């Protein structure tokens, strides 16, 4: 999970996400062509649930690159600039509108990525296959899979 928008409000008000918890895990065996539901609950720094008021599909993560020699998964912007790297074609980018328990609203960029459970590495996907199979309607169903407290 990475955030870009809403950082000013987070710094000024002291709000921010501290933890995400799977209420329902994705299935253990996935195929690239499957839509998979999961339920995710978000919590702030005080341990209070954060309500997800709105979810918007932004796009696929198609240009991110991972260093060939790295064994760690990098979600930061520096991963896009590696000279000796390969495309991951892994991830879906959403923008969330969050409501904290103190009434403050923020927008948060949110990335969903497939990680191999054995190696802890980003899975490599062929997006032309995934995009054709999933379509935008299934991607927008992500909103209904997020837990609201």
From TrEMBL:
Coiled coil spans: none
MF GO annotations: DNA binding; zinc ion binding
Superkingdom of this protein's organism: Eukaryota
GO cellular component: nucleus
Transcription factor COE DNA-binding domain ranges (all copies): 11-125
Pfam families associated with the record: COE1_DBD
Alphabetized UniProt keyword annotations: Developmental protein, DNA-binding, Metal-binding, Nucleus, Transcription, Transcription regulation, Zinc, Zinc-finger
GO BP term, pick one: regulation of DNA-templated transcription
DNA-binding listed as a keyword: yes
Subcellular location: Nucleus
InterPro entries to which the protein is assigned, alphabetical: COE_DBD, COE_DBD_sf, Transcription_factor_COE
Entry keyword Disulfide bond: no
PANTHER family: TRANSCRIPTION FACTOR COE FAMILY MEMBER
Family note: Belongs to the COE family.
Descriptive protein name: Transcription factor COE1
Organism: Cricetulus griseus (Chinese hamster)
